Amino acid sequence: MRTPEALQHRLNGFPRVRLGHFPTPLEKMERLGAHLSEELGKALPALWVKRDDCTGVATGGNKARQLEYSFGAAKAAGADTAVITGAVQSNYMRTAAAFAAKLGMECHVQLENRVEGMGEEYHKSGNVLLDRIFGARMHHFPLGEDEKAADTNLSRIAARLKGEGKNPYLFTLSPETKPTGALGYMQCAIEVLEQASAEGVSFDAVVVPTGSAATHVGTLLGLRLAGYDGPVHGICVRRDAESQTERVRSIVRLAEEMLASGSVIEDDEVICRDDWLGPGYGKMVESTHEAIDLAGRLEALIVDPTYTAKSFAGLIGLTRAGAFDGMGNVLYIHTGGLPGLFAYRSVIHPD
Ligand SMILES: Cc1ncc(COP(=O)(O)O)c(C=O)c1O
C-alpha cells in the first residue's frame, strides 16, 4: 500500500532523535511567480516553497532532518563520538556538531579542501565559526574531490579514537554506505503531502538540490511510497548530471533495501540537471547571483552560493524553459545553507 500512513509506519521502525522543529512551513512564492509570469508573458503554475531552511537546529536546513535518523542510529549503536567529513563550509558538519553538543557527544569534523582559491572568510567564517562554537574538534584534509580518500582518512581518525577508549560513529555519505539520512526526507515527503492536502492543492512537480543525494533519494522514494507520482527534479550542486544520476540510482537501490520496499523507482524516474552547476561545487555563476538576488528581493528568502542558490536557479531556469507549463502547483524544497552565505561575502558583494 502506498499511502502516507503506510510510509510513516515503515519509518517508525528506525531509531530517531527528535531535535528539529517540524513541520516546517509551506508557503506560496507569489511575487516570484508574478515576476516570472510578467517576464515570460504567460500564466504560470503557483510556485510553493517548503521552508526546510527553518528546521530549527543551529540555523536550520536539510541536514537536521537527515541527522535525526543518523544520530538515532549512532545512539542505538551506543556511540559517544560523532566523526564526520565534508567540505570546509559543510552544513552537514555544522548541524552534526550542533546535534552532538545537544546530545552530549564528542564531535570530530574533517574539513575537505573542495573549493580552491578561497580566502580567509571562507576558511574561518560561516559554518566553520559555528563548528568551533559547538565545540567540534577540527581535522584538515587537503584533497577536494576524492570521496573515497576522505572516508579512508576518516576511518583512521575513528580508529585512533577507538584506541583512546571512545566509541565513534562514522557519518559518511558515500554511495556505498546505508543512506540512513534519506529517511529524514521520506518524513518530509509525508509532511509535504499532508500540508498540500490541508491547503487543498496537489503538486505537479517538485524541485530539490542533489549532492550527497540523501535529500533527492529520500524525497523521491518517500513521495512514491506515500502515493505521489509526479516528477522530482534534482538540481546538481556537486557533480555533472551523468555521474549524479548514476549516484542517485545506486543510492535509491540501497534505500529500497533498507526499507525492504522492493523495487519502487524505475531508472528513468531519476532526473538530474546540471545546467546551473557552473564550473563546479561551490563556484558561483551568473544564475547563482541572480537566484540570491531574486529570492531575497521578491520573497525575503536567503539562499546560499553552494547549494540553495543553485537549486533556486534550477527552479527559475526550469520555469523559463517551460518545464512546468500547464501545471497547477510546483514545489521547491528550500534546504537552508544560511551560514555558508557569509563565507562568500566578498564574492557576492565585493564593494
Ligand atoms: C544547504 C544544503 N542544501 C542541499 C544540500 C544537498 O543535499 P544532499 O547532500 O542531501 O544531496 C546540502 C548538502 O550539504 C546542503 O548543505
TrEMBL record:
Record PTM N6-(pyridoxal phosphate)lysine, positions in chain: 63
Pfam families given in the database record: PALP
Keyword annotations: Pyridoxal phosphate
Lineage: Bacteria, Pseudomonadati, Pseudomonadota, Alphaproteobacteria, Rhodospirillales
Cofactor: pyridoxal 5'-phosphate
Similarity comment: family membership: Belongs to the ACC deaminase/D-cysteine desulfhydrase family.
Keyword match Metal-binding: no
Record-linked SUPFAM superfamilies: Tryptophan synthase beta subunit-like PLP-dependent enzymes
UniProt protein name: D-cysteine desulfhydrase family protein
PANTHER family in the cross-refs: 1-AMINOCYCLOPROPANE-1-CARBOXYLATE DEAMINASE-RELATED (PTHR43780:SF2)
Organism: Nisaea acidiphila
